[in-house]
Design goal:
Number of strands: 20
Distance between the termini: 19 Å
Family: Belongs to the flagella basal body rod proteins family.
InterPro entries: Flag_bb_rod_N, Flagellar_basal_body_rod_CS, Flagellar_FlgE/F/G, Flg_bb/hook_C_dom, FlgE/F/G-like, FlgG_G_neg, LlgE_F_G-like_D1
Largest sheet: 3 strands, antiparallel
Radius of gyration: 27 Å
Subcellular location: Bacterial flagellum basal body
Pfam family, one: Flg_bb_rod
Organism: Seohaeicola zhoushanensis
Amino acid sequence: MRALGIAATGMMAQQTNVDVISNNIANANTTGFKSARAAFQDLIYDHRSREGAATSEQGSVRPTGVDIGLGVRTVGTVRLNVQGGLIATENKLAMAVEGRGYFTVNLPDGTNAYTRDGSFQLSAEGQIVTLQGYEVDPGIVVPENTVDIEVSEQGIVSAYIENDPIPVELGQLTLTTFINDAGLRPLGNNLLEATNTSGDPQQAVPGDPGVGMIRQGFLEDSNVNIIQQITDLISAQRAYEMNSKAIETADQMMSVTNEIK
C-alpha cells in the first residue's frame, strides 16, 4: 500500500517546515535577520489511466485520467528579503541599511561576505569591524583622538578630532547589491556569501538609484512576524498529525486485509 510511503514523505516535509519556522522564531531578535519559508513540490505520479484515452469504439474518450501522486519533497528554503524595522541605539557606529544593499565584510581567509547587521565597533587599530572582528570593506580607520563620528546617509564617514569644529572625512562606505538576493548563501554570524545564482556583487554609493541609504545610530531589526510564524507552526503541526493518521489508517486497512480468510 503506497499510502504508507506517501504519508511518510509528508511527515518528513512537515518536519523540515517546523525546522525552518523554529529557526525564524529563534532569530526573532537577531539584527538584520531575514525570515525564510520552506518550499515544496509534489513527486512523480503513477498514471494508471491517461486522460483522453478511448473508452468505446464510437470514439468517446476519458475526460480525466487516474493519476496517483507519490508524495512531496522539499525543494528549497526561500529567504524573504523584506525590510525590518529600525531600532535606535546609542552607538555612533551602529548603522542600518534602509532599502536594498549589504555591507561588505573581509573574512580572515581573504574572501568577502555580506551582511545587513550594522552593529559595528572599533578594533585596537581603530578599524571599523563587525562584532566578530571582521573588517568592513572599504576599510576605514578612525584616529585615536576622535571625539565624535558622523556617517551621512550617503555613507561618508567623518570624524571630529579633539577640539577642531571642522570634521575630517575618513572615507566612503559602499553598499553591495545583487540581482537575486534570495540566491545568497547564509554562513551564520549574520553573514551571507555570493553564489552563482545570486549574481555578481555590484558595489554602489548609498542613495544611488536602486540602492538604500545608511541610517547612523540605528540597527535593522529582524523581519520575523511572530504571529504569522505561530500560525504557520500550528498549521505544520496539524499537517504532520494528519500524515501520521494516514499511516495509522493504512496500517489498519492492511491488517484487515491480512485477516481475510
